[in-house]
Amino acid sequence: MERYKSIKRASVLGIIGNIFLLIIKGIIGFITNSQAMIADSFNSAGDIVSSFMTYIGNKIASKPSDEDHNLGHGKAEYIYSMLISIAMIYMALKIFINSLNALITGSTYEFSIWLIIVCIVTILTKLALFIYTDKLSKEFNNLLIKSNSYDHRNDCILTTFNLISCLLVLFNIYWFDSVVGLGISVWIIYTSVRIFVDSYDVLMDKSISDTTKQKVYDIIKNHPEIKRVNHFNSTPVGYRYQISLTIFVDGNLSTFESHKIADDLEKEINKKIEEIYLAVIHVNPIEIDKIRKKKSKK
Question: Does residue 197 share a domain with residue 279?
Answer without folding.
Answer: no
